[in-house]
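Journal club side-thread
Mid-discussion, someone asked how the predicted structure for our own chain would compare to the paper's figures. Pasting it here so we can look after the session.
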Amino acid sequence: MSLPKPDATRPQADQSRARSRQFDLLAFDWDGTLFDSTAIITRSIQLAVRDVGGTVPTDKAAAYVIGMALNQALAHAAPDVPPEKYPELGARYRYHYTARQNDLSLFAGVTDMLAALKARNHWLAVATGKSRQGLNSVLGSVELQGVFDSSRTADETAGKPHPLMLQELMAEFDVRPERVLMIGDTTHDLQMALNAGCPSVGVSYGAHEPGAFHALSPRFVAHSVRDLHDWLIHHG
């Protein structure tokens, strides 16, 4: 959902306020960062691999691929499944995920955090490994229309950690890399930020163990949404 770019001709007071912020554009990963979906994605991957006769990945192996484009993720999680079975594997994943998607919810505090950031006139975007159809579906189900100024998905750009999602967002809003902050729960998110020349923040409550984050130089690692909210208000 690439929404119209906000009007760049802001009142003078807003322009001054914008310059005082460290970041103009905040790009959020979706699953595991804003949306509490890690356990269901992991289980859906495992069931899909089982359905097509592959070796079922461990919880850790299945969670590791969260954030990648779907085909890339499934191929990585199920290396013994032949490529000709990838369409079936993807279909089974979507079946199991769809059956459970009503169990998903935003992490507590996310709506308040996004509202506070909008009030500071940050541009908010989503950069996700989900498909466009999948992202539009969840954005509708949690009634977040109008909160995000733009979004990019793996099927319409490139999967993480390729920097294309962030590059397109920077071009859309005419923002320099150092004024864009990528926020995510996986090493794929933080590596994408590095590849795009953007700073990043990691969250430890999602799919990846935060011990792997430090090599990717995030500005901060948040251990809860409250932690993230406070840091973004004071340092964003």
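Post-session note: Residues 1-19 have pLDDT under 50 and may be disordered.
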